[in-house]
TrEMBL record, chains A, B:
Pfam families: CBS, MgtE, MgtE_N. The keyword Membrane applies. NCBIfam families: mgtE. SMART domains: CBS (SM00116), MgtE_N (SM00924). Keywords: CBS domain, Cell membrane, Magnesium, Membrane, Metal-binding, Transmembrane, Transmembrane helix, Transport. One of its GO terms (cellular component) is plasma membrane. It comes from the Bacteria. Residues 224-280 form the CBS domain. Homodimer. GO terms for molecular function: magnesium ion transmembrane transporter activity; metal ion binding. The chain crosses the membrane at residues 380-401, 407-433, 445-468. This is Magnesium transporter MgtE.
Length: 470, 470
């Protein structure tokens, strides 16, 4: 039945349907239908289906298509292609699509966007390509975007919208409402208006609910709330996100160094920042570069991961040096070679647990100089308790397995040493890196592993040498 | 100078200052000053300093105090203690503070809050204590909270506010504005009003900016926007957060099974959910329970981590079994015992990289059935490329170190095998767990480690046995 439906009818049907399943994943049917239309170069059906879809859904669709199909889709949609969809895809995909387009076409698409979306789209292009596109924009857009790009990458100035409503302090509520009713060129969606002096210095804001509930003759200065939380345009987006989160803000005005209002940051942009930062932390803790994307090529991915594996190789060789210095003992008692990795691995896992909690607590500002020693003491105690527990378990199993109670005692003692050392390293290393202003999420791993591997092998084999008089 | 300042003057000074440094960390001076006032039981100064502080700052203060001081602070503040500060601290601290208070006192504090904050505070108490507090609340609050607790933990119904503005469809813009001006009992902060029929079935919403810009005689139904994204109260908060993020929502109406409006979810609550979910993923990938907090006791922490270490011990023993089955070869050639951990560890790290990316892509819905095979192929290729790279590096170093080129060849071959196996396991295991509806963030680790440890030892020692005819 469905197969015989003409494409346009199918486009009309799917235009009004939800493209996602209950888990929020794009339905495969949507991709199939679009691929069919692309195959037939059926621009009319495509426009019917895609033009009014939400940018997030179009972005998800682009991500699922092959690179050639992506470009064909953008081409067939022509002016109907909504550039905001490009803010919803990975950098790799975005750059691929943009590089296939003429600068004029990109400029036309960009001109319709708000500054924050335009910046997000142009940010990853190289200087030259970006300049070429900016030159083709209307003067006012060009000026706004050039100014945004003057702020450093990852700063509030790059994320803000420069569309906002500002009124002078001598206006009344009635004048503001009339202004809102009469102006055609207002932002799409706003929840507050700002009050500025003639030099654009911010005096405060009035929330729309307040405005609505006040009589017309009242002066805006009478209902204005002074800003307690403003953002400086050059501020790092992570710090801004943290402020939004802490104080449950919906938006915040952005000012330049002269305290002049230059833009507004809204929480939906901040949600993206929070998501990006969490993503970066998770990836870095897993030994992957923060910007690795699932759409990266094999070669880019392999190169990116090589570095981390190389650092790990060095730490592994360090640990091996310890093993090698005990060659005589290992040859004499091969059980030691068999069991040594258990000591290293248990210590490594305990250290990773501690490190994860420490890195996370540093990121959320829960761990600071004031409670650092309390946390260090706590971690060492936890390491000691679990060290004892695993000394008993592992020691018992090893004793029976190798029918040698002495081996149980040795591995038990080594486990206590290594779990305490691992816990100590797991919390001290991130604290030290943070003090040195190095991101502990990126750099703690290899140091911590080195500590537990070296301590694990060293304690186990030293104790064994001494106990068995090897 | 500062030391001689009377406490009340100091309280007045710090009341108007920012309590945080540039990094957003609470200034130690604030804690010192508060501790001083607690020591003197100087309630007046404390109230001056703390009563008007933002809940997030009071929360940060509570977190930094010792348990006894926390309770003394709450006691001295009395009715001036803002219960919303309890939503800003860890569960452990919250429960500790609440358990020290009388149910009447908690009920009084709770009664002033919005439902979402009240639910957040009472949620962690046990059934009985919660009931006791609810019984002491005014009937309307009690009813609202009981209803919220009827929804499952982690559902939208628990997170929503039940304070919202709903108007009938036959009203005009003028009537709505008059209603807003005249009603005393409106929510603190709102950005839209909802239009409902007499059965409270949701017809749509009107944004405040739209309302402001429309003439009084216009009917609300003429400017109403139909809801495209409603949330069902029983929906899981993670799915809701994902929807907010995807469609950049600021708020969404919550309906019951009968499509009746029961509440509203705002993005500031969702920011907390996103943060919590990211936190849970990071902790679980690091082998820590999702709800482990930095304020947990040593004993709770040790117990929570024991389970993960125990599972790891089993996988470590599995890998050891492989080593033990090669005891003869290890005894004959001790270099194998020295180098084996390198093979296991490089494979383990490559697998962790792949696993991190796969788990993350599953969480963000970027990895699904449609692109799974492409990603698996990509990961295996990456593993193969880095396998070759590290085979050359490690092989060369090992050859010179042990002055035996054959050992270099053997470890090189084993590394290629193990990096490919690790990459394959790192992506297939999370995919499989996800298909089985098990959270891959919690469970992938031990399986992946087992794969790389076993494959690492097995491939290295098998190749060595065959190459050296051991």
């Amino acid at each position: 039945m469905v197969e015989t439906q003409p494409p346009l009818a199918r486009a009309l049907e799917w235009r009004d349907r939800d493209w996602r399943d209950d888990d929020g994943e794009l339905l495969p049917e949507v991709v199939d239908i679009v691929c069919g239309m692309l195959g037939e170069a059926d621009a009319e059906s495509l426009k019917t289906l895609v033009s009014d879809a939400h940018e997030a859904d179009v972005g998800a669709l682009l991500a699922q298509l092959d690179p050639d199909d992506r470009n064909r889709l953008v081409e067939l949609l022509g002016a109907d292609f909504d550039f905001t969809a490009l803010t919803e895809v990975d950098e790799t995909i975005r750059v691929e699509i943009l590089e296939e387009m003429e600068p004029e076409q990109v400029a036309e698409g960009i001109a319709e966007l708000e500054t924050d979306d335009a910046v997000a789209i142009l940010e990853d292009l190289d200087e030259e390509e970006r300049s070429e596109i900016l030159d083709k924009l209307p003067a006012s857009d060009r000026f706004a975007l050039r100014r945004a790009f003057d702020y450093p990458e990852g700063s509030a100035g790059r994320r803000m919208k420069d569309e906002f409503i500002a009124v002078p302090p001598f206006w009344t509520v009635g004048q503001v409402i009339d202004h809102l009713r009469e102006s055609a060129d207002l932002p799409d969606d706003f929840t507050e208006i700002f009050v500025v002096d003639p030099g654009y210095h911010l005096q405060g804001h009035v929330r729309l609910d307040r405005l609505l509930r006040t009589q017309r003759p009242v002066a805006v200065t009478d209902i204005l709330e002074e800003e307690t939380r403003t953002v400086t345009a050059s501020e790092d987006q992570e710090d801004v996100a943290f402020m939004f989160e802490r104080y449950n803000l919906l938006s915040a005005p952005v000012v330049d160094e002269g305290n002049r209002l230059v833009g507004v940051l809204t929480v939906d942009d901040i949600v993206d920042v929070i998501e990006e930062e969490a993503d970066a932390d998770i990836k870095q803790l897993g030994g992957v570069k923060a910007d690795e994307e699932i759409s990266d090529s094999v070669w880019t991915t392999a190169k990116g991961r090589f570095r981390w594996l190389f650092i790990n190789l060095i730490t592994a060789f360090l640990a091996t040096t310890v093993l090698k210095s005990f060659e005589v003992q290992l040859a004499e008692m091969v059980a030691l070679a068999v069991l040594a990795p258990i000591v290293a691995s248990q210590g490594g896992n305990a250290a990773t647990q501690t490190m994860t909690v420490a890195v996370r607590a540093l990121a959320t500002r829960e761990l600071g100089p004031r409670n650092a020693w309390r946390i260090v003491r706590r971690e060492v105690s936890v390491g000691f308790i679990n060290g004892i527990a695993f000394a008993i378990i592992t020691g018992t199993v090893a004793s029976f397995w190798f029918t040698n109670a002495n081996i149980g005692v040795v591995i038990g003692l080594a486990l206590v040493c290594n779990l305490v050392a691992g816990s100590l390293g797991g919390v001290l290393i991130p604290l030290l890196l943070d003090r040195l202003r190095v991101d502990p999420a990126i750099s703690s791993g290899p140091f911590v592993t080195t500590v537990t591997d070296v301590t694990g092998f060293l304690s186990f084999l030293t104790i064994a040498t001494w106990w068995f008089k090897l």
